[in-house]
């Protein structure tokens, strides 16, 4: 049971979402004319203390009732993420933002039996399929537009494969390359869509980077991302300036 004091503390930890892209080494670079910038990622809080324990309990220990305590922070992160794209209030020509999450691994589906991000979105958005955030265009959640590749699914079952958080940025990029595929439904939904990515924890940015690559190839335009928590990636302080200066780093 999550006590009232813990709920209030968690709310305080995620009350002020913030830009988190500068600590992630594997995020894609966006080119607009002469301007080059890193894909903007907004985090609700830092992956430490109570927030990290709550996320782990929710995802890996079956404490699904924590979704309603984590969802308000996610909603604030989504709100700022949309605001940071520079998009104004919805107009007649605006079809809305398509929210895309990484597909759960085969191992995750077998062990958890639910998709943590999908469950959180049900609590965070005004309705299960989406809804409008204050002052912004409609958010529409698009499930089943991506799937894990067969190779990635089998790799997730390998006990020697290791967890992503134990790897550096370059190792994560290599391990995730080719992990996601567009489904038949996704091919229709994503072409021409304005996309906002959503994940639980930002570390190196490798997952978001691979999502960006696959979705852009499918004809979508990815404007930014939101996460619940951001954790410093290994070597971020030493490597960020190099990555910022060189698209090939």
List keywords for this structure.
249 residues; alpha/beta; 7-stranded mixed sheet; 11 strands; 40% helix; 21% strand; globular; disordered C terminus
Largest sheet: 7 strands, mixed
Poorly predicted tracts of residues? 88-93, 237-249
**Sheet with the most strands: spatial strand order:** 1-4-11-10-5-7-6
Spell the H/E element sequence: HEEEEHHEHHEEEHHEHEHEH
Rounded Rg: 17 Å
Strand content: 15-25%
Shape: globular
Percent in helix? 40-55%
Number of helices: 10
Residue-averaged pLDDT, rounded?
A: 84
Distance between the termini: 46 Å
Topology:
Elements: H1 4-13, E1 18-19, E2 29-32, E3 35-38, E4 41-46, H2 49-60, H3 67-84, E5 97-100, H4 106-112, H5 116-124, E6 130-132, E7 138-141, E8 146-148, H6 150-156, H7 169-176, E9 180-182, H8 184-190, E10 194-202, H9 206-217, E11 221-230, H10 236-245
Parallel strand pairs: 4-11, 5-7, 5-10, 10-11
Antiparallel strand pairs: 1-4, 2-3, 6-7, 8-9
């Amino acid at each position: 049971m999550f006590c009232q004091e813990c709920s209030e503390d968690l709310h305080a930890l995620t009350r002020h979402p913030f830009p988190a892209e500068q600590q992630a080494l594997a995020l894609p670079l966006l080119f607009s004319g002469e301007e080059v910038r890193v894909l903007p990622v907004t985090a609700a809080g830092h992956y430490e203390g109570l927030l990290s324990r709550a996320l782990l309990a929710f995802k890996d220990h079956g404490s699904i009732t924590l979704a309603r305590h984590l969802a308000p922070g996610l909603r604030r992160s989504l709100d700022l993420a949309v605001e940071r794209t520079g998009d104004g209030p919805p107009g007649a020509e605006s079809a809305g933002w398509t929210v895309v999450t990484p597909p759960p691994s085969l191992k995750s589906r077998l062990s958890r039996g639910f998709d943590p991000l999908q469950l959180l979105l049900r609590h965070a958005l005004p309705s299960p399929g989406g809804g409008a955030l204050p002052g912004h265009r409609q958010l529409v959640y698009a499930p089943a537009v991506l799937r894990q590749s067969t190779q990635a699914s089998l790799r997730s079952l390998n006990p020697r494969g290791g967890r992503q958080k134990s790897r550096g940025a370059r190792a994560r990029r290599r391990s995730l390359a080719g992990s996601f595929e567009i489904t038949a439904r996704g091919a229709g939904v994503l072409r021409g869509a304005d996309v906002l990515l959503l994940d639980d924890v930002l570390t190196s940015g490798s997952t978001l980077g691979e999502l960006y690559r696959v979705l852009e190839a499918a004809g979508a335009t990815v404007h930014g991302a939101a996460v619940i928590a951001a954790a410093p990636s290994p070597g971020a302080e030493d490597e960020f300036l190099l990555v910022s200066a060189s698209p090939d780093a």
